[in-house]
Specification:
single chain, alpha+beta
């Protein structure tokens, strides 16, 4: 079972809030696709920051004359760091939109986590 943090965005007196589940831990898709992952998820500031970081890293590595193997190592390390912190960046992006972390749920998938959270509401 995985841990998911449940984020909720209430719209005034609306009885149906927007609820999201974010997995704790490493995000493989973010490590592979970096800013494409963030853009697909709708985390626009994160996508822009990751794209800018990749461009800056590439320019710096080219400027110092690092060989292709060295550039590949630096890019792989950057992608692994993105995978490690991707879900934290997703939480940050949701917090900017007004979501608050409500609970942590243990579940098999994000859908199952949302189902478990909704069934415990009274």
């Amino acid at each position: 079972m995985k841990l998911f943090s449940i984020h909720i965005h209430k719209y005034g007196l609306d009885p149906c809030p927007d609820i999201r589940a974010i997995k704790e831990g490493f995000n493989l898709w973010a490590a592979i696709l970096t800013f494409f992952w963030a853009a697909f998820k709708g985390y626009w500031w994160v996508a822009g920051g990751l794209a800018l970081a990749e461009i800056i890293i590439s320019v710096i590595l080219a400027a110092i004359g690092l060989d292709l193997f060295g550039q590949a190592v630096v890019n792989i390390v950057f992608n692994l760091l993105v995978g490690l912190y991707a879900n934290d960046l997703a939480r940050w992006s949701l917090a900017r939109r007004g979501f608050t972390e409500d609970e942590v749920v243990s579940a098999v998938s994000a859908e199952h986590a949302l189902e478990r959270y909704v069934t415990t509401l009274h």
